[in-house]
């Protein structure tokens, strides 16, 4: 039987590229231009959160993670802000599963 990919693999192959592509332009490319004071280049930045004062990621607790609220376009938080950049249901599920499994962020992403 096929074993499910590990959460580290899910992060390396699906979640990290998604964060870079969909979020990096405003929350990761240039530290001095971070929108909303949110740095998504590291797990530490995500756990700290931005100007909202709430953590973007609470490992193991997706429903307390503002990142998930934002990509679901809930509670007035809509990220990415353009309709045609929105994450698909499948992509949102990758993010949810990654957070639910403790949000591992391997320093060297193994493929």
Task: Characterise this structure.
By secondary structure, the chain is mainly alpha-helical. The mean pLDDT is 90. It contains four helices and no strands.
Low-confidence stretches: none
The backbone outline, from C-alpha atoms, is globular
Terminal Cα span: 21 Å
Percentage of residues assigned to helices = 40-55%
C-alpha-based Rg, rounded: 13 Å
Number of helices: 4
Number of strands: 0
Task: Note the main sheet.
Answer: none
Q: Helix and strand layout, with pairings?
A:
Layout: H1 7-27, H2 43-48, H3 66-71, H4 89-100
Brief description of this entry?
The protein has helices at residues 7-27, 43-48, 66-71, 89-100. By secondary structure, it is mostly helical.
Defining key terms:
mainly alpha, 111 residues, 4 helices
